[in-house]
């Protein structure tokens, strides 16, 4: 990812976070959740994390939670 695109993504995230907080404080929790998903997608793009990598990470976390195998 080029630096200009990365900078633009980094600049959008705080704006979306502020808008999410406004939505949630106004009682629109589902809309806030949708904005959270958009923020997560931007962060994944910014850090070049693929959907497959996220899925593998999620599976590993789920397995650890299910087995009670917690490590700091």
Structure write-up:
By secondary structure, the chain is an all-alpha fold. It has one domain. Helix content is 81%, strand content 0%. It has helices spanning 3-25, 29-46, 51-67. It starts with a helix and ends in a 5-residue tail after the last helix. The model has no long low-confidence stretch (mean pLDDT 92).
Short description:
The protein has about 70 residues and is mainly alpha-helical.
What are the SSEs and their pairings?
Layout: H1 3-25, H2 29-46, H3 51-67
Helix pairs in contact: 1-2
Number of domains: 1
Rg from C-alpha positions?
15 Å
SSE order in H/E notation?
Answer: HHH
The class by helix and strand makeup works out as mainly alpha
Whole-Å distance between the termini?
Answer: 32 Å
The poorly predicted ranges are none
Portion of residues in helices?
over 70%
Describe the structure using short key phrases.
single chain, 72 residues, mainly alpha, 3 helices, flat
């Amino acid at each position: 990812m080029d630096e200009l695109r990365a900078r633009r993504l980094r600049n959008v995230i705080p704006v979306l976070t502020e808008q999410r907080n406004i939505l949630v404080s106004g009682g629109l929790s589902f809309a806030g959740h949708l904005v959270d998903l958009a923020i997560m997608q931007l962060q994944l793009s910014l850090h070049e994390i693929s959907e497959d990598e996220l899925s593998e990470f999620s599976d590993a976390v789920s397995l650890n939670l299910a087995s009670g195998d917690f490590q700091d």
